[in-house]
From TrEMBL:
Keywords: Heme, Iron, Metal-binding, Monooxygenase, Oxidoreductase. It comes from Penicillium bovifimosum. Belongs to the cytochrome P450 family. Heme binds at residue 128. GO terms for molecular function: heme binding; iron ion binding; monooxygenase activity; oxidoreductase activity, acting on paired donors, with incorporation or reduction of molecular oxygen. Its cofactor is heme. This is Cytochrome P450. InterPro entries: Cyt_P450 (IPR001128), Cyt_P450_CS (IPR017972), Cyt_P450_E_CYP52_fungi (IPR047146), Cyt_P450_E_grp-I (IPR002401), Cyt_P450_sf (IPR036396). PANTHER family: CYTOCHROME P450 MONOOXYGENASE APDE-RELATED (PTHR24287:SF18), P450, PUTATIVE (EUROFUNG)-RELATED (PTHR24287). One of its GO terms (biological process) is mycotoxin biosynthetic process.
Length: 187
């Protein structure tokens, strides 16, 4: 089978490229839910909890809108307030392993009691109306990629950079400044 390469700006955010055990677990979940079927339905995708965890973890580390600060309007004291007037507190709510790609953090109740623990689409009355559509679209794409290509990896010589060390470009949305070279094999 011939190998084919492509550059995909969002592929860098798919931690499964850098963590093959994640990709293999996803392949197993997809096979178990899909059986012999090839086109995933919405209901089938909703029965893939690990896929949802992988997407959440990717969006946690590489959110489409990387900065969404709030400003304290009056002097307050943490943990219930935001600090002196004008301060913009930034809290690390993910713990000591915040810079690790670990989809399993979303499986347990570890983040259940953290208000707004998943923030890529904002929340409350200003939450993105397209969140469900976007997550379903990404889910479908990942399922079809893993079904179609027997081999997806970083090409030989492409560095496996630690989370956050890649060159990024901050515009209205966060972009990979150099894309992500990917090697795929259909089979």
């Amino acid at each position: 089978m011939p190998k084919m390469g492509f550059r995909a700006g969002s592929a860098r955010s798919l931690g499964m490229l850098r963590h093959t055990h994640v990709m293999e677990r996803l392949r197993g979940e997809i096979a178990s839910v899909m059986g012999g079927g090839s086109i995933p339905s919405r209901e089938q995708i909703r029965r893939m909890p690990y896929l949802a965890c992988v997407i959440k973890e990717s969006l946690r580390l590489y959110p489409p809108v990387p900065l969404n600060n709030r400003e304290a309007v009056r002097t307050t004291i943490l943990p219930t307030g935001g600090g002196p007037d004008g301060d913009k507190p930034m809290l690390n709510i993910y713990g000591h392993d915040a810079y690790e790609f670990r989809p399993e953090r979303w499986e347990s109740g570890e983040l259940a009691n953290i208000g707004w623990g998943f923030f890529p689409f904002s929340g409350g009355p200003r939450q993105c109306l397209g969140e469900d559509f976007a997550q379903m679209e990404v889910s479908y794409t990942i399922v079809r990629m893993l079904q179609t290509f027997s081999h997806i990896s970083l090409p030989i010589g492409e560095p496996n950079e630690p989370v956050g060390s890649e060159k990024q470009q901050l515009t209205l949305v966060l972009l990979s400044a150099e894309g992500c070279k990917v090697e795929i094999l259909k089979g």
